[in-house]
Write a structure and sequence with these properties.
Layout: E1 5-6, H1 9-23, E2 31-37, E3 40-47, E4 51-56, H2 69-73, E5 77-82, E6 92-93, H3 100-113, E7 119-124, H4 126-137, E8 142-148, H5 159-171, H6 174-185, H7 192-203, E9 204-205, E10 225-230, H8 238-248, E11 253-257, H9 267-275
Parallel strand pairs: 4-5, 4-7, 7-8, 8-10, 10-11
Antiparallel strand pairs: 1-9, 2-3, 3-5, 3-6
Helix pairs in contact: 1-7, 3-4, 5-6, 6-7
């Protein structure tokens, strides 16, 4: 299995021009680390001090995808924002990530490299899948998990998102992906963080394992769990996803936000859960 890489040195330069613009809208980090793991180095930005929260972004969103939320999370916490290894960003993959076991091991090694014996993990969209991979396969350093409309965890992607993503991949034009991101998440393609996602799609060649639902393996999750789902979701069936989470992780605090889509403004909700 191959590893993710930029299409060319020129593609890398174009991508990081967009990356710098998106990161300029985030608070200035207190520390920047490149954490070595068995799968490559992982870029992590730390903001603030206090109880450790580790943030995993949605697909190709990088740490910049959290934007101003980083400051809100860091009011009373040490926030560690991660550029997901194997996706575009400052993390550099050197070995393949083949499945959920590898993904969980990678995240555990990141926590160890940061010197975190216990941390609260927060994952948005596909970042929620990465968090669950760690909670199932490498839970020793995890204090709690918060999942913000996690994709691929309890149910698969909806048919609509699959065929639209396939069509955009075939067309390979920015306008096709702009149309997809606007439809899937209500995203403004002129925002710097969204333009960064588009740059990643255009300039980076990812080789990632499929994000398949965990099924009965989720019953292994023992840590406190918050799971939030949007009821007006086009990415997956939020109602079914929430019901399945309640079934497989009975101790989880599961909420369906009936009027919300895939993007949830959940910062204060997550912080209240972590404080509890």
């Amino acid at each position: 299995m191959k590893t993710g890489t930029f299409a060319s040195p020129e593609a890398r330069e174009r991508y990081f021009a967009a990356y710098r613009l998106a990161m300029a809208l985030c608070p200035a980090p207190d520390e920047v680390s490149d954490v070595p793991t068995s799968f490559g180095t992982t870029r992590v930005y730390r903001f603030g001090h206090g109880v450790p929260l580790v943030l995993l972004p949605g697909l190709s969103a990088t740490s910049a995808g959290w934007g101003a939320e980083l400051g809100r999370y860091a009011r009373d916490n040490a926030v560690y924002a991660v550029d997901t290894l194997g996706e575009p960003g400052h993390s550099v993959q050197t070995a393949p990530i083949r499945n959920a076991v590898d993904r969980g091991r990678w995240l555990d090694e990141v926590l160890a490299g940061l010197g975190l014996d216990l941390a609260h993990l927060v994952g948005a969209s596909s970042g929620g899948w990465h968090v669950c991979a760690a909670a199932v396969h490498a839970p020793e350093r995890i204090a709690s998990i918060s999942l913000i409309d996690p994709t691929g965890v309890t149910v698969g992607f909806g048919f609509g998102v699959v065929w639209r993503a396939a069509l955009a991949s075939l067309i390979r034009r920015d306008r096709a992906w702009r149309w997809f991101l606007r439809w899937a998440g209500g995203l403004d393609p002129e925002r710097p963080d969204v333009r960064l996602v588009l740059a990643g799609i255009r300039e980076y060649r990812a080789h990632l394992p499929p994000q398949l639902p965990f099924g009965e393996a989720l019953r292994e999750v023992r840590v406190p769990t918050l799971a939030l789902f949007g009821g007006r979701n086009v990415v997956h069936d939020g109602v079914k996803a929430a019901d399945r989470m309640r079934e497989l992780v009975p101790h989880a605090e599961v909420e369906l936000w009936p009027e919300s889509g895939h993007r949830l403004d959940a910062t204060e909700h997550v912080l209240a859960f972590v404080r509890r």
